[in-house]
Amino acid sequence: MKYQFIVVADSVGKLANQSGEATKEIILLVQRMQESTQDTVETVRLGNELIMHAGHSFTEIIEYVNNSAERITEVAASCEEQAAQTNEILQSAQNIAAVTEQTSASTEETASATEELATMAEKLNQLVGKL
């Protein structure tokens, strides 16, 4: 019986050692899982920060695009105003050219009439001189 007790005690000792080793391995596995979980939590936190930063960046981009669109609209309106003013200036220049042309024609007619009057006055003087 003593022998059986020694065998059982030896087996219990081996089981205790194996349990101890298994417990150590379980503890190591749990520690690794905790570390891995902490790493995952940190990665998720960093990911959330990046997402929030990207969201802010997109908001700023949208604001810049909207501001640019407003500026483009303002520039387009200014260009339309300038085009209208340019057309008015062109119309005024054409009117001035037409008036200048009419004035030139009137001046030529006046010069021609003045020349005829001068000729007639000379003839009249000659006739008066003969009388």
Task: Please characterize this protein's 3D structure.
The structure is a single chain. The protein is an all-alpha fold and 131 residues long. The protein has a domain at 7-73. Helix content is 98%, strand content 0%. It has one helix and no strands. It is rod-shaped, with a radius of gyration of 55 Å. The termini are far apart. The model has no long low-confidence stretch (mean pLDDT 91).
Average pLDDT score: 91
What is the rounded distance between the termini? 189 Å
User: Tell me about the biggest sheet?
Assistant: none
- Number of strand elements: 0
> Helix/strand-derived class?
mainly alpha
Count of helical regions: 1
**Low-confidence segments:** none
> In percent terms, what proportion of residues is strand?
under 5%
Pfam families: MCPsignal (PF00015)
Protein name: Methyl-accepting transducer domain-containing protein
Keywords: Transducer
Domain Methyl-accepting transducer: 1-118
Give short descriptive properties of this protein.
131 residues; mainly alpha; Methyl-accepting transducer domain-containing protein; MCPsignal_dom; transducer
How would you summarize this macromolecular structure in one to three sentences?
With 131 residues, the chain is mainly alpha-helical. It is 98% helix and 0% strand. 0% of the residues are buried.
